Amino acid sequence: LETNATSNGETAKPMRQVRVRRPGPAIRFTPVTVGAALWTAVLGPTALAPEAVAALQAIASVRDLPAGSLLISSREPSRDLCVLARGDAALGTVPDDGHFHPERTVQSPGWLDASSAWLGGNAALDAVAVSDVQIVMLPRAALQQAMARHPDLARRIVATLARQVHALTVVAHDLMHKDAETRFADWLLQRCTPETESADGPQVVALHERKRDIAAQLAITPETLSRLLRQLSRKGLIDVMGYTVRVLDLAALRAIAAA
Amino acid sequence: LETNATSNGETAKPMRQVRVRRPGPAIRFTPVTVGAALWTAVLGPTALAPEAVAALQAIASVRDLPAGSLLISSREPSRDLCVLARGDAALGTVPDDGHFHPERTVQSPGWLDASSAWLGGNAALDAVAVSDVQIVMLPRAALQQAMARHPDLARRIVATLARQVHALTVVAHDLMHKDAETRFADWLLQRCTPETESADGPQVVALHERKRDIAAQLAITPETLSRLLRQLSRKGLIDVMGYTVRVLDLAALRAIAAA
DNA sequence: CGAACCCTTGATACGCTTCAACAAGAGTGG
DNA sequence: CCACTCTTGTTGAAGCGTATCAAGGGTTCG
Predict the structure, then answer these.
(1) Do residue A176 and residue B151 have CB atoms under 8 angstroms apart?
(2) How far is CA B258 from the centre of its chain?
(3) Cβ(B154)–Cβ(A151) under 8 Å?
(4) 0.70 exceeded by the pTM?
């Protein structure tokens, strides 16, 4: 049988699992190096007004943390919005003693938690750094004042939350009505189009995360994901080589995803 | 075997299914009768400032629609936020020809859609009136201007969306990790505490919706829900009589829900 | 009355998990 | 360097959970 095939240097392997560290010691305290690029990446497509950017910079605090740090805990009330400026993180739950159980992942410029600080309660999920990360915290009270002075800022926060509502609605819908194969086809197609749009050769999707984390996102076991990969490659839809997936039959994959 | 037991007049039965009507003709056009009570019920616990209420009233349009109307369509771009002022509605999907397939229900004072109007695209789900309803529409552009003038209004819209993000996160989490019995126990307990908090007798939960709609909320088939009810009543945890459920062993139910 | 709708119950089938075993790196320490 | 362990991914066998299909009874409405 074919092996994992990582020795031929096809793709970089995802990092190994890192134990969750509790107090998350800061490596260094970088003075604000994040610029306007981060805010436009995170708060919508168009550029922000310079004074809005200045207001954000004034209240933001930046932190560098090592892989494995607990970034957000669902056990303490959250007072800040939280942006992931660099690195990868995972949202999920940490049982009292056991290992971290991820539910979905967040990549470099993206929100870790834009919602729970507004509710005065705890976050719904824990967040753990998968790689070394840089996170940006926005205190809710200060952001609220900035929103009052800059209505456009309020508009963008609202749009950000609306996007998350939309995305979560789709996630819930898919979990209710689509089976594992369909969800995986969806996932694969989503990672397909924004990549190399070269119409000639087959699309190549590199898996940056461990396969068990992909399985967790799809709410299936790693065994099932492994079987799905083999099943699809046997049908000639994809070609799996370690952490590289070549999509051979895009149309057929779309047909499965549309089920 | 025991029958549905509705003839003894225990509880009001839910309405029968009504076919989805396409253009949804308005019954009558009520001039704004909704008061500040609706806005505080929908925009957070504390009372709004009178001028914020006035701003909302100025831009809101009210509509009365009969049961079965299509309130929100995921096929047209949505330009308004939508509040359910009276009656019950269901969110779900309408296949091209088939029947409506609900996913969750919304009750009297609540948001039908507070998010999709901000995104410039279509709504994620369709909404159908289960009973005769009264809905209130808020044009996004006008609401945005009102938010700029009344920062507290922006604060509440943000909190509303944050609540929805939280709720949907929990829904997705439960769908991933909890089985049908656990989800139903959760659902039952959620309808338990806010009701008669009388510590003496057993809690009584009246099912206002059809059982197949409850099943749809739990992402299970009606058959499975029926079996769950019998299973729990055989174990002595609940007592089912038509559309009335008496909770006999609250502690055991909580134990199942905590799984 | 029949027709349409709802709920229930049983038999069966399928999807996915669980459990167990194994192969292949990657880090560690002799 | 090699043995040892830890982690990951893969595969197979067995089993649970839920869906599907089919049948039947109750209620409401025309």
Answers:
(1) no
(2) 24
(3) yes
(4) yes
